[in-house]
Design a protein that fits this description.
Distance between the termini: 28 Å
Structural class: alpha/beta
CATH topology: Maf protein
Number of domains: 1
Largest sheet: 5 strands, mixed
Length: 165
């Protein structure tokens, strides 16, 4: 499967921005395997300073704990690539920002790092809103590293667009 086009990624970022502006909300992102790709997409939208507050790139587990407050027990029990960790990342981004909506991504982009239990392409997402809503999702993406990362960024944006309504 091909990488998500730049045009589609930009359209998703614009759509999310429009939905957040309509509610007077700010966004914070917490990214691991995408390494700030979502943050880059949203800051490429003119006027995004009106709706994007900050981003956390927490590639290492220690960063997830220190910057987002992910409980070490969550990482030890479920691993970095888990819905539990993604939800904790999203909730932590909400707590450590002034945003009303957050998204989090943690996954295995490859080409190495996969296991039979957690193969390359496994990506977990978390989304949180200031009203206390925290949801998660997991998917298995095919493709090379770039394809997995672009598709993960797109899925995270789509998930928050749907949640924000």
């Amino acid at each position: 499967m091909a990488r998500v086009s730049d045009e589609e990624l930009q359209a998703l970022a614009r759509e999310l921005g429009e939905k957040l502006i309509a509610r007077g909300w700010m966004l914070a992102t917490a990214e691991s395997c995408t390494g700030g790709w979502v943050g880059q997409l949203v800051t490429a939208v003119p006027g995004s300073s009106h709706w994007y507050e900050r981003g956390f790139i927490t590639y290492a587990n220690a960063a997830k704990v220190e910057m987002l407050g992910v409980p070490p027990e969550t990482l030890e029990t479920h691993g970095a690539v888990s819905e539990e960790t993604a939800m904790a990342m999203a909730a932590g981004a909400l707590k450590h920002s002034h945003a009303q909506a957050t998204l989090a991504i943690s996954g295995i982009a490859g080409p190495g790092g996969g296991t039979p239990q957690k193969p390359v392409g496994l990506v977990c997402y978390g989304w949180a809103l200031a009203d206390g809503t925290v949801i998660s999702s997991t998917c298995r993406l095919d493709g090379d590293r770039e394809e997995i990362r672009s598709r993960a960024a797109a899925a995270a944006l789509r998930g928050l667009i749907e949640l924000v309504g």
